[in-house]
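Lecture 7 notes: from sequence to structure.
We start with the chain below.
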Amino acid sequence: MPIIKSAIKRVKQAAVRRDRNVATKKAIKAALKAFEAKPTADTLSKVQSEIDKAVKKNLIHKNTAARRKANLSKAAKDAGVKLSAAKKPAATKPAAKKAPATKKPAATTAAKKPAAKKPVAKKPAAKK
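Predicted structure tokens for the same chain:
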């Protein structure tokens, strides 16, 4: 066991991170077993989601994830699983539309002219 405070802290942090990483890897394995037991589009999406989470947490390399997902898709295709397109949930729309803002008459907007720019005063050059 370390004696230095920073080393003690590092040991604690490493233990917490290890637990977190092991939990993520177990989630991938559990989802994979569920997919292998019953290959459906739902279980396939769960496995792919878990793999994406692991990549996001830098637990596995992105190419490793791509390879695993490709193999999963191939296995799903061989099993006859219909791959559903990913649908994003529609944004909630307000029940009642607000009344459009009233427009100002065109004559008043055309009559306004942009303000003239003031010339910028140049600073005198410093003498050497």
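Points to note: The domain at 8-79 is CATH 1.20.58.110 (Methane Monooxygenase Hydroxylase; Chain G, domain 1). The first helix runs from residue 5 to 37.
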